[in-house]
Amino acid sequence: MKHYRKKPAVVPALQWxxxxxxxxxxxxxxxxHATPSKNRxxxxxxxxxxxxxxxxxxxxxTDGTIQRHSEKDFNLKFELS
Length: 81
Fold this sequence. Notes:
Elements lengths: L12 E3 L5 H7 L4 E4 L4 E6 L2 E6 L3 E4 L5 E4 L1 H7 L4
């Protein structure tokens, strides 16, 4: 039996710091909207809503979907290329 290593993918990502809301919304190409009074961004994907909190990362996966990762999760799964 042969063993294969999964090829690493390089994906664009942006951390929301609470002050770069316009950048995050632009990055999401209309798939998100901000709720400033609750200090959150709602990420819309196929009818599901994911809440992005300050400090979370927004990642565009290789298939084009947008995903939220907590800072801890992001740092475990990704490194700067």
